[in-house]
Amino acid sequence: MKVLLFAPYAKVWQHVVLESQLERLLTGLGHEVIIVQCFESFRSFCHMHESSGLKVGSSLSERKEICGSCTKNALAGQKRSNVRQKLIEYVQEQDKHQIEKFVNNLINSNLEVLSFDGYPVGKIALAEIVLRYKKRDFKLSPEQFEHFKKILENIITTILAGKRLLSSIQPDVVLGLNPGYAVPASFYKLAMTLGFRTLYLAGGPSIDDLSKSVTLWDFQKYGMANPAKEIWDQNNYVPTREDCKKVKLYFKKLRSSKLAWTYSSAPKKLSSREFFKIPKESKLFLLAMNSFDEVIALGLLDTGHEIRFQSGVFQTQIEWVQFTINYFRDNPNHYLIIRPHPREMPNKREGQISESAHEWKNFLLHKPKNVVIDSPELGFSIYDHFDDIDALVTGWSSTAIEAMHLGIPVITYDSELPGFPSALAYSGRSREDYISNLDQILKSTPRIDPSQSESWLAFHHYAGSIYLGGGILDRYPFNLITRGSLLHRALAKLIPLAIQKLDMLMPASRQDQELLGRIITGKLDNLYIR
Question: What phi and psi, each to the nearest 5 degrees, are found at residue 216?
C-alpha cells in the first residue's frame, strides 16, 4: 500500500523522530511511505514561527531563521529515507495571487461561515485563533484578524497545493501528526473530501509517552474524539501488570509537576481547610472548572460527529457553577472551593488570559461565605486539596481521574460530558440527578475503589497506542530524566546535533509492528479493538 504521511512541522524534532520510526516500521511491512514536508511553503507566517516566539509582522530575516531550522530538521530526518515530497513544489505562482485576492476582500464578520472552494476554511482558521487567544466567541480584534488572515493563507495554500499532490501520488491511506492545528486539519479535510482514507495520528494518549508512541484511528469514523470510551463500554478489560506499573508512575510524575504539560504546582503539604479557613466538621467539595476555549476549538474542527461538551443539563459552564453555588447557599454548614482552570490565567505554558476569566471573576464576586475561590494566582496545588476534600465536582476535567485514583468520589453534572466512562463517577442526565448526587455525598462519606479508574487509565493510555521507542533521551538511562525538566532541556539545548544523530540511529521498536499493519490496511478502525 502507498501511505502518505503529511509532516509540515519538522521544527518539532520530536515529530521528525516519530515520523521516521513510523516510516521504518511501515516500510518493513512492505508499504511504500511518502513523507510530505513544508520546505518554506508557509514562509509568510506559520505555527512554527509563532511557537518560536515570533508574531505576525515579524521581519523576513526572523521568519527565515525559523524556516531554516525547520528545513534543517527535515533534511536530517531525510537521511534515513529518500521517499520525501516537498509541498512547496506543488505551490504555483497563480495560487499566491488567488489567495491574496481572497484574503484582501475579507470582512471581519461571520468568519465561521467562510468557505473556499467548498471547504470550511473559516472554522479551521478560527480554531487556531480561539486556542491562541483563549477566546469564547468569534469576534476578533484587529490584531487577531490579521493573525486569522495569515492562518487562512496557509490553509488555502494547503488546499490548492494538496489537491495537486494527492492527485499525483494517489495514496491508499493518509495520515499526519496533530490534525488539531490548521494546516494538518485542512489537509485531512481535503483528503477526506477527495475520497482518500484518513487516519488520525497523534502522540500517545499518555503525556508521558508523547515522544515514544503514537495512537491512530479512522478519522472519518471517529473524528477528533478518542474512541476509547466507546470501546470500553463494550469490553471487559483487564490491564497488564506492566501497564499498571505505568499508571502508578504516571500519577507520580503528575504529582511532581515536572511534566511540561501539567498546570498545577507540586504539593506543598498545605491544608485546604487551614488555608481557606474551613471548619473541620464541614463537608468540603472541590469544584474543578474546565478550560472552555479548547472545547470551542474542538467543535470548530469536528468532522460532523457529536460534540460531547454540549449539555442539556446546563447550557454553559457559568450556569452550572452558579447553580452549584446556590446549592451550597442552601447548605451553609458545608463548603465549596471553586477552582478555575489554570489555563484561564497566564501560566507556565501560556501567557494569555482567557476571555472567560473576566466573566467568571465578575460573577464569583457574589457568593455566600461558605464558597471560596482558589484563584490560579494563589498557586495552591490541587494535590494539596486532594488530601482534604470529600468529593470533586466537575464537568469533564481530567483531574477527576486523579481524584478517583486516590479514592475520592467524583460528581459530574452530565454523564455524556466526561472523556471517561460515566460508571466511574456519580453522574446523571438532569439537574435532579445532579442534586441527588450532591445530597448523597453530603449525607455520607463514601470512598471509592481506585482500581476501576486505574484500569480505565491503563486502557485509555496504553491499550490504544503503538510503541515506537522514541529518541535517545527516551531510552535507558536517559529516560530516567523527566521530559521537560531543566536537565532534559539542558541536554537537548547543549548538544542538539549529537542528540539528533543518535536519535536517527535509534531502532524503531517492532513490538507493535503487526498491530500497526492491521490498522493501516483497514483490518482495524482503531487500536482498542484487537
Answer: -135, 145
Query: Among residues 375, 373, 376, 285, which one has the least CA distance to residue 327?
Result: 285
Of 33-47, 105-119, 241-255, 299-313, the range with the lowest mean pLDDT is 299-313
DSSP type of residue 316 = S
Give the three cell numbers for residue 179. Answer: 490534525
What's the confidence (pLDDT) of residue 363?
A: 73
Q: How big is the CA angle at 294 (ends 293 and 298), to the nearest 5 degrees?
A: 115
| CATH node for 2-234+465-470+506-520 | 3.40.50
What's the CA angle centered on 265, arms 263 and 269, to 5 degrees?
150
| Cell (9 digits) for 301 | 474542527
Q: Do domains 2-234+465-470+506-520 and 241-460 have the same CATH topology?
A: yes
> Letter for the amino acid at 432?
E
Cell of 488: 532534559
* Beta strand pairing call for 84-86 and 371-373: unpaired
**Three cell numbers written together for 495:** 548538544
3-state secondary structure of 2: strand
| Three cell numbers, residue 31 | 508499504
The residue behind cell 500519577 is 251
CATH topology of domain 241-460: Rossmann fold (3.40.50)
pLDDT in tens, 62-81: 999 999 999 999 988 876 55
Q: Are 336 and 285 in contact (CB under 8 A)?
A: yes
Residue 484's pLDDT is what? 67
Helices (H) and strands (E) in the chain, counts: 21, 12
Q: Give the residue from 152, 158, 166, 145 showing the smallest Cα distance to 115.
A: 152
Contact present, 218 and 209 (Cβ < 8 Å): no
Cell of 7: 509532516
Better-scored residue on pLDDT, 267 or 5: 5
Measured CA to CA, the distance from residue 79 to residue 401 in angstroms comes to: 42
Cell of 514: 503487526
Beta-sheet strands, E only, within 324-385: 335-339, 371-373
Closest CA to 327 of 283, 271, 361: 283
Q: Report whether 283 contacts 201 (CB < 8 A).
A: no
Q: What whole-number distance in Å separates Cα of residue 70 and Cα of residue 64?
A: 10
d(CA 295, CA 312): 16
In sequence order, which residues have a C-beta less than 8 Å from that of residue 449 and are 6 or more positions away?
407
Distance in angstroms between the alpha carbons of the first and the last residue of the chain: 21
Contact 37, 84 (CB under 8 A): yes
Q: Residue 9 has what DSSP assignment?
A: -
- Angle at Cα 463 formed by Cα 457 and Cα 469, nearest 5°? 105
Q: In whole angstroms, what is the distance from residue 151 CA to residue 128 CA?
A: 8
Q: Are 442 and 435 in contact (CB under 8 A)?
A: no
AA identity, residue 28 = G
The span from the CA of 487 to the CA of 229, in Å, is 36
- Domain spans of the chain, in order of start: 2-234+465-470+506-520, 241-460
The rounded mean pLDDT for the chain is 90
